[in-house]
Design goal:
The chain has 7 helices and 4 strands; from the N terminus they run H-H-H-H-H-E-E-H-H-E-E. The protein is α+β, with helices and mostly antiparallel strands and 264 residues long. Strands 1-2-3-4 form a 4-stranded mixed β-sheet. A hairpin with a 2-residue loop joins strand 1 and strand 2. The mean pLDDT is 90.
């Protein structure tokens, strides 16, 4: 062999040695990254934490796959890949669970806002339906995710709100039935506006007009009949207040409060 051949062989050996050193250094770096990934996974308590842990495991896998297969370190890299790929898969699954948990929590919160909006309109039937959907979303937050404790707290709150709305719905239906009996005669005297902590009733415009016409007619007999009818209606509303243990507020057609009857 010539001197040039020796030089070529030496250069090849040096390149191989350098490649082995680089591969070993990469392997050492991977082991440090593994420690970081394990530490981040151990303390993860939110979606962002789990996403960071997953990203770190992804770096581990990527760097192991980058180690040259022509080096002695490649065998160790293959063994570590077998060990750590399931770790990445498990953390990836946890990230997906946390994402689902966040989505369900957000959906529950949005639905609760709709329920509250329905309550503000005294639409108790709609409120009950919205609370049911909100509860379904909150119950769908996966167990063992970081969002589950918050979901449990919401479930307790939503159940209570749903029960209250359901009670209001049932009371409203009973009040509506009883009020229709008191408010219906030759014409419609009044209509139910809403039921919450009080019962709100609005006088019908045709009834108010009829009262005004009677008062201005100069016919004392007609005025007496109207006065007696108003008294009877007032008594019916007082009875309604006592029956449901809720004050009854009476409004004119324009929405002005005229009188308030307390339970007796």
């Amino acid at each position: 062999q010539t001197r040039q051949d020796y030089r070529n062989q030496l250069a090849t050996v040096e390149r191989q040695l350098q490649q082995e050193q680089q591969a070993q250094q990469a392997l050492n770096n991977v082991k440090e990254t593994v420690q970081l990934a394990e530490a981040r996974q151990k303390i993860a308590q939110s979606l962002a934490n789990w996403q960071l842990a997953r990203a770190t495991w992804q770096v581990v896998i990527m760097r192991l796959q980058e180690i040259s297969p022509d080096t002695l370190a490649a065998r160790d890299a293959r063994q570590l890949l077998t060990l750590y790929q399931p770790q990445l898969a498990a953390v990836h699954e946890r990230v997906e669970q946390e994402q689902t948990a966040n989505q369900r929590l957000e959906q529950a919160t949005r639905q609760a806002a709709r329920a509250t909006a329905a309550e503000s309109q005294f639409d108790w039937q709609q409120a009950v339906a919205e609370w049911d959907v909100a509860l379904n979303y909150a119950n769908e937050v996966p167990v063992d995710t970081s969002s589950r404790p918050q979901a449990e707290a919401l479930i307790t709150t939503y159940k209570s709100s749903r029960e209250q709305a359901s009670e209001r719905q049932q009371i409203t239906e009973r009040v509506s039935t009883d009020l229709n009996k008191a408010c219906t005669g030759e014409l419609q005297f009044c209509r139910l506006m809403s039921v919450d902590s009080v019962i709100r009733v609005r006088l019908d415009s045709a009834y108010v007009d009829a009262i005004a016409a009677a008062r201005s007619s100069g016919n004392r007999d007609l005025q007496a009949v109207v006065a007696q009818h108003q008294l009877n209606l007032r008594r019916s509303l007082v009875d309604l207040a006592s029956r449901f243990d809720l004050a009854v507020e009476v409004y004119d057609p324009s929405g002005t409060l005229l009188e308030r009857h307390q339970p007796q």
